[in-house]
Amino acid sequence: MISIFVSSVQKELGEERRAVKEFILGDPLLRRFIDDVFLFEDIPASDQQPDNIYLAEVEQRDIYLALFGNAYGWKNAEDKSPTELEFDHATKTKRERLVFVKGDDDKARDPDIAKLIRKAGAQLTRRRFADTPALIREVYAALVDYLERRELLHTLPFDDSPCSGATLKDIDSAAIEDFVESAEARGRLTLKGSRAPKAVLQNFKLMRDGKLTNAAILLFGRDPRRFFNNIQVHCLHFFGTEKRKPIASQQPYEGRIFEVIDQAVEFVLGKLDRPVGTRAHSTQAPGDFEVPRSVITEAVVNAVAHRDYRNTGFVQVIVYADRIEVWNPGELPHGLTPEKLREPHAPMPRNPLLAEPLYRVKFVEKAGTGTTDMIADCLAAGLPEPTFEQNGAHFVTTIWRDWLTDAVMDELGLNERQRYMVQFTKANGRITNADCQRELKVFRNTASRDLETLCRQGLLLKKGTTGKGTHYILARKRTTNAPNAS
Fold first, then answer.
1. Which CATH code of 3.40.50.10140, 3.40.50.1460, 3.40.718.10, 3.40.50.1110 fits the domain covering 2-149?
2. Which residues of the chain have pLDDT under 50?
3. d(Cα 480, Cα 484) in Å, to the nearest integer?
4. What is the pLDDT of residues 226-279, one digit of tens each?
5. Could you tell me the pTM of the whole model?
6. Does domain 233-274+289-400 correspond to CATH entry 1.10.1760.20?
7. Are strands 2-7 and 34-38 parallel, antiparallel or unpaired?
8. Residues contacting 308, CB < 8 A, separation 6+
9. How far, in Å, are 62, 78, 429, 485 from residue 458 at the CA level?
10. Looking at the domain that runs over 406-474, which CATH code has it been given?
């Protein structure tokens, strides 16, 4: 049987600690495998020693389950809390570690607990939760994943599972022909033998015991929606920087994976700026999207190919004035963390039967370089690096449309008025002195000084010289001669 040690600041997360224990020991599935959940407060008062950290208890358990909130807790002589010591000991003794973080506002946390959360995030996937029911869902998903990895629960991967009710009549032969031609044209397929749909499907292991797999329908089905109600990629566009109505435009895409990827990428590119260049080297005026197409494509492909299809949610691709977010149901494979995505790593596809055909048409690579290529392409375009984060039941990739992130504004030491001016310009595309006076309730001279400061620092560009036509827009790239430019 399996045992669990629950670690957290007791006073802050007492209700959540108790709920986790009661749920695990009461769940019909989990209690078949887990018979011990340790809480410090369950020890008789006479045996409790507040000055001792129960590191031995950590070492005796199979799983270390941590709940992190806003408080760090009391510190010992070495300036460390029991929670951090327990985390470090679980790491040292190679316990299975599961970390759950309450809330999204990291700025409200004690600096020490924020530092501990970052340390944990560099080593493993953190799951966020808003309330106790959300925590229970996350705990359940994490423990089921652990049991599957330990081969205590035996289930076929989603993509390799037979698609109930599907027959060869549900396969689009033309889609398979197009795939074969595209893969051969890209030099990643040399097909020998029959090109009949059934033979191609068998060649890519898309049939199991004579039955079509889920992957076969997702890749080549005539109507995948007939078999799956969660394959939608929902694309949304907001004019501002927040997810609030009115929605400028939205479009759900459903169908074969190859088509959905192309449609979602084109939706995003259609909302981006594309500055027109010169005809110095061509008869047509060139223009590059403000975010490289390769970055958008990689983010969408990752979401569609690596998502958890057993999750009832769907992929969301959201275009804001300052960024693009791609929300992917599921989480990173065990052993891969958001930090590790920033360095070369081995490929770890969640759905290998989906990933293989995507590789053949050059949608993905097998070298584990997709995210590092995204980072390099963004930096080459003068943009910040993408961010990767587990947010509850979704893995979120954020691609920044401009370099003016919160971190950059912190670095530049902008005051609240100046930060508001930047955000207003992001949301509206431009700002005037009159806008500043109206929105911030300041005098004209004050607005002028702030606008001049933002121009001097290379954040805004002034259009016009005098009069009502004068306005300011965002600098799309960091000005090289700005005082704070690097």
1. 3.40.50.10140
2. 51, 276-287, 479-486
3. 9
4. 999 888 999 999 988 888 888 999 999 999 999 999 999 999 999 987 654 433
5. 0.65
6. no
7. parallel
8. 158, 329, 330, 331, 350
9. 53, 44, 16, 8
10. 1.10.10.10
